[in-house]
Amino acid sequence: MSIDLDALKERLVAEVHRRADVLLDASHDIHAHPELNFEEHHAHDVLTALADADGLEVERHAYGLDTAFAVRAGTEGPTIAVLCEYDALPEIGHACGHNIIGTAGMGAGLAAAVVAQELGGRVLILGTPAEEGGGGKIFLAEAGAFEGVDAAMMIHPAGVDLMRMDVIAVDSFEMHYHGEAAHAAAFPWKGRNALDAAVLGYMNVAALRQHIKPNERVHGVITHGGEKPNIVPAAASTAWYVRSRNLDTLAQLTPRVAAALEAGATATGCTCERETKAPLYADMIHNSAMVEAYRANALRTGRDPLDPTDAGTPVVGSTDMGNVSYLVPAIHPMIAVAPPHISIHTPEFTAYAGGPAGDKAVIDGAIAMALTVADLWARPEVLATARTQFSAAVEHRR
Predict the structure, then answer these.
(1) Which of 13, 59, 168, 333 has the highest CB neighbour count under 10 A?
(2) Comparing 14-23, 75-84, 301-310, which segment has the lowest mean pLDDT?
(3) What is the pLDDT averaged over residues 50-60?
């Protein structure tokens, strides 16, 4: 049967616009109720309610994660996963715009579900909690969430429309220092200062930074430094993100950072231990065939996602979507929500994510992804090329 793909895409655009009010209400609701890693109960309920209203099959608390969900439509053909994120950051809320990611993903999936049977495809709307350091997608993958999935996609807010984010691998951990308490005035010589150990470790890392590669990042904070000034701190803790180009180079950098941190304990007569807080996040394999389809569809909304190299405005960071890209062909384009000079993970970006520019990104992102899902179903050559590129890219990295 011949399909008029342009006409079908117009229907998909109309399906997204038909749901615009409820999608934006959901985005505002999630933005107003920021929740941290694995605590996204409100967002989980808001998003699954949208799928319920469309009469779709909804699996709440999916794959053993209480705030994950899976919504399915279609009975045969390629399965395309549209991923939703909805966790927030401490103190500054949705400064990464995950309220937009979640509702745009849901909007794309709901629209695609309408034509799934007609195009002979299946869509999976996957709710993925705890991207901000919790590794929700990694746990979902281990539980089998991506088995049978042919391709996966999501969008991410930024200050500019880009075809991809420069995703680098990350290792996150805490370093706990142990000393010995003493009265800081009466008997300071009896103490062993765990805060001094933490501070010296921090300074050692600062000295290390000038000898790492330009695409590597190390950043940390002191999370505990003692109780009162007149008590020599017996315990202190720091939290760290170590980032590098890929998992192989990360495996070389992390021991250097750990050695710098441990030296602070050695110098002060303290001890320390490293506690891993989340799975390793991989770099990302951006699938060119899918990126090209997404860009062509984003043009329909008036957006023109640029190559970050050409634009001169790369967004560097880490995401557990990188791990997904090693399992299936995947894309992670960036959608403009704020002016280019406004950085994500700032209070200013939080405001944009809940404002008119964020609303436009929800609708435009949902449209661009829904149309890309349609391409993967209706144009077999696109999915075939995506699979070939994926296999070659994974083999190259091995």
Answers:
(1) 333
(2) 301-310
(3) 97
Average pLDDT on 367-375 reads 98
Residue 1 pLDDT: 53
- Please give the structure tokens belonging to residue 77: 């053909």
Q: Hunting for tokens 């395309």 — which residue is that?
A: 80
- 124: exposed, middle or buried (Cβ count in 10 Å: 0-12, 13-18, 19+): buried
Backbone angles phi and psi of 344, in degrees to 5? -65, 160
Question: CB under 8 Å to 192, separation ≥6 — which residues?
Answer: 179, 180, 232, 234, 268, 269, 270
In sequence order, what are the residues at sequence separation of 6 or more whose Cβ sits closer than 8 angstroms to the Cβ of residue 178?
194, 234, 235, 270, 271, 272, 273
- On the 0-12 / 13-18 / 19+ scale of CB atoms within 10 A, 396 is exposed
Angle, helices 5-18/98-119, rounded to nearest 10 degrees: 140
Q: How many angstroms separate the CA atoms of 218 and 244, rounded?
A: 9
Helix axes 20-32, 98-119, angle to 10 degrees: 150
Element (H, E) at 104: helix 98-119
| 3-state SS class at 337 | coil
Single-letter code of the amino acid located at 263: A
CA–CA gap between residue 199 and residue 373 (Å, rounded) = 50
The residues with which 219 forms a beta bridge, in sequence order, are 241
Mean pLDDT confidence for 230-246 = 97
Phi then psi for residue 353, to 5 deg, are -65, -25
Percentage above 70 pLDDT, the chain = 99
Cα–Cα distance between 398 and 394 in angstroms, integer? 6
Answer whether 265's CB lies under 8 Å from 219's CB.
Answer: no
* 159-192 confidence digits (pLDDT tens): 999 999 999 999 999 999 999 999 999 999 999 9
User: What sign does the CA torsion over 377, 381, 385, 387 have?
Assistant: positive
Q: With a threshold of 0.85, does the pTM exceed it?
A: yes
Tell me the pLDDT tens digit for each residue of 71-95.
Answer: 999 999 999 999 999 999 999 999 9
Cβ contacts of 172 within 8 Å, gap of 6 or more: 133, 239, 240, 241, 242, 276, 277, 278
Share of the chain above pLDDT 90, in %: 96
